[in-house]
Amino acid sequence: MKIISWNVKGLGSSNKRRVIKDFLRLENPDVVMIQETKKEKCDRRLVGSVWTVRNKDWVILPACGASGGILFIWDSKKLCKEEVVLGSFSISFMVQTVPHLGRIFGWNFMTFMV
Questions:
Q1: What are the distances in angstroms from CA 102 to CA 27, 47, 50, 74, 94?
Q2: Mean pLDDT throughout 51-80?
Q3: Beta 3-7 vs 31-35: how paired, if at all?
Q4: Could you give the CA distance from residue 50 to residue 25 in angstroms, rounded to a whole number?
């Protein structure tokens, strides 16, 4: 499993989103954890501008004004969501590999802002 965690210091710039998208396309991760999105909302269009994998799902912890924000994205062909807990400054996330891939593993992730 390939996991990428990145403090992007804002997703407002289309140039920055393009750099992130190109990097993720090159690395082909299963899970992407983005901190400091500085976004109060992350819709399908914004998430698609960052990661172009067709089958993806995500959860967000919205920014407070122009600070903070976490975006957690995963490849839904490989992982399924079991549980999500949003803290004030963190996301705790439990996923499981999808059954058709054979052996089933559970994974716990936590990403946070300081």
A1: 24, 29, 29, 19, 19
A2: 90
A3: parallel
A4: 10
The candidate with the shortest Cα–Cα distance to 27, out of 57, 48, 1, 45, is: 1
* Percent of the chain residues topping a pLDDT of 70: 86
**Tokens coding 113:** 């802002």
pLDDT score for 100: 63
Q: What is the rounded distance in angstroms from the CA atom of residue 114 to the CA atom of residue 82?
A: 26
pLDDT in the model for residue 86: 87
Structure tokens, 22: 């190109």
CA dihedral sign, ordered 26, 32, 35, 36: positive
CA distance 74 to 14: 21
